[in-house]
Design a protein that fits this description.
This protein is an alpha+beta fold and 421 residues long. The protein has helices at 24-27, 38-43, 49-52, 101-119, 147-152, 192-206, 279-282, 287-294, 331-334, 374-377, 379-388, 417-420, and strands spanning 87-95, 140-145, 183-189, 210-219, 268-277, 345-346, 349-353, 362-371, 395-405. Strands 1, 2, 3, 4, 5, 6, 7, 8 and 9 form a 9-stranded antiparallel sheet that branches. Helix 4 (101-119) packs antiparallel against helix 6 (192-206).
Length: 421
């Protein structure tokens, strides 16, 4: 993680202030301390202006495959309460050495412009493959900041107290390659090419100011393949995300709903946990053992004491021998609490990467959780799971990162404007 320092890229000027109206090109002039080659990397950008300014494709039916768009402008960013698409790329970046408030401001202006274009099915301003942008496929891009941005921008006083690595849990086996970051892009869509193209455009545009730290790609059941009222499954065959928070019903669990403290209204937090699954030993477990570990039936996702997936589990129910039907260490028991604030919005994705030599698989879950305060809401649940969850025998957290989700950008605003003005 980088911090602020002297000689930052881009000399401070009036045209860098959020809400002012400089030309796009003026934002791309690298400053004295930008990394070598930055000027060359951006020199050809203007050559693509004409292509990027081409008229948008002719309108097609809103329900046509790949043509669905999600609005970018609004009080809150898309990609949190938005219906969950089939594919995700989570991209963490680190600011370059010497990046300062001016650099952060310029990057936010560039990303605001390009994200708005891409989500509308239009190419980014310097898009070298503009045809790929014509398939938006419900694309959403969510921008979040890590602690390093607040330091670089000189706004530590605006940094929320919860924006820090999660405490160490007994089950963690974290690897540096999946942890931390100064910035996060969550790019979601129903088409993998759309996701890859958006990631390419946005990381290329950021290279004067930030470099990629890690990328995690995931997938889930495509829309329409899961029966209404049921939940998608992970690679263990289990339903994953039952009884999730509804942000429309309980917005205070997901969003900052007032201006108390340093954080800002309509912001949120996101925790990204990479959880490796030992599918090879899980496969050796019989069906009864799998159901007891989770506390749900595999066939329909219903709790072992219920008939339907969304039935309330009876944690006091006992069998003929007097044992609890749902084990004391079953996942659904350990994850539950009587405290209604210990809940968060889950948007999980599976991953299935190339295994190491001699291994059969490298698979798991990208656990993505949104909440107003991860320390107050998520940490207590993770502590209970780490203490005595049967699923710990087959799952291991290997990555963890926490970011502050910026509020949305209303018409004429720039992402992060409330913090940078």
């Amino acid at each position: 993680m980088t911090t602020a320092g002297a000689g930052a890229p881009g000399a401070a000027s009036d045209d860098a202030r959020p809400g002012s109206g400089p030309s796009r090109r003026s934002l791309l002039r690298p400053g004295a301390a930008a990394t070598g080659g930055a000027a060359a990397a951006l020199a050809g950008r203007g050559a693509w202006d004409a292509a990027a300014a081409a008229p948008a494709p002719a309108p097609v039916a809103a329900d046509a495959a790949g043509r669905v768009t999600v609005p970018f402008r609004g009080a809150r960013q898309a990609g949190v309460a938005t219906p969950q698409p089939a594919f995700v790329a989570l991209v963490a970046l680190d600011l370059v050495a010497g990046a300062d408030r001016d650099a952060v401001t310029r990057l936010m202006r560039i990303w605001t412009d390009d994200v708005e274009r891409l989500m509308a099915g239009r190419p980014g301003l310097a898009d070298t493959e503009p045809e790929l942008a014509q398939v938006p496929a419900a694309l959403t891009v969510t921008v979040a900041w890590g602690p390093g941005v607040f330091t670089a921008a000189g706004i530590e006083d605006r940094r929320p107290s919860w924006l820090a690595p999660l405490p160490a849990f007994a089950v963690d086996r974290l690897e540096d390659r999946w942890c931390g970051g100064d910035l996060l892009l969550q790019v979601c869509a129903d088409d993998q090419v759309t996701v890859a193209h958006a990631v390419r455009v946005l990381t290329k545009e950021a290279r004067t100011f930030a470099g990629v730290r890690w990328v995690q790609r995931g997938f889930r059941n495509s829309p329409g393949t899961v029966a209404p009222g049921t939940t998608a499954r992970n690679l263990m065959g289990q339903v994953d995300g039952t009884r999730n928070v509804d942000p429309d019903v309980e917005p205070h669990l997901v969003w900052q709903v007032d201006d108390a403290g340093p954080w800002v209204r309509d912001g949120s937090s996101v925790v990204v946990r990479r959880i490796a699954m030992d599918l090879d030993t899980w496969d050796e477990l019989d069906r009864v053992g799998r159901e007891n570990a989770v506390g749900r039936r595999l066939a329909d996702g219903a709790p072992l004491t219920g008939a339907h997936e969304h039935d309330e589990p009876d944690l006091d129910a006992r069998d003929a021998l007097g044992f609890t039907v749902i084990s004391d260490a079953a996942h659904i028991r350990r994850a539950r609490t009587d405290d209604p604030t210990h809940r968060f919005l889950r948007r999980g994705y599976s991953y299935d990467d190339t295994p190491a030599a001699g291994a059969l698989s490298d698979s798991g879950l990208l656990f993505v959780a949104f909440q107003a305060d991860p320390v107050a809401q998520l940490v207590p649940v993770q502590e209970r799971l780490a203490e005595a969850d049967l699923m710990n025998l087959w799952t291991t957290p290997v990555g963890s990162a926490v970011f502050a989700v910026l509020p949305g950008a209303r018409e004429g605003e720039v992402l992060g404007q409330a913090l940078l003005v």
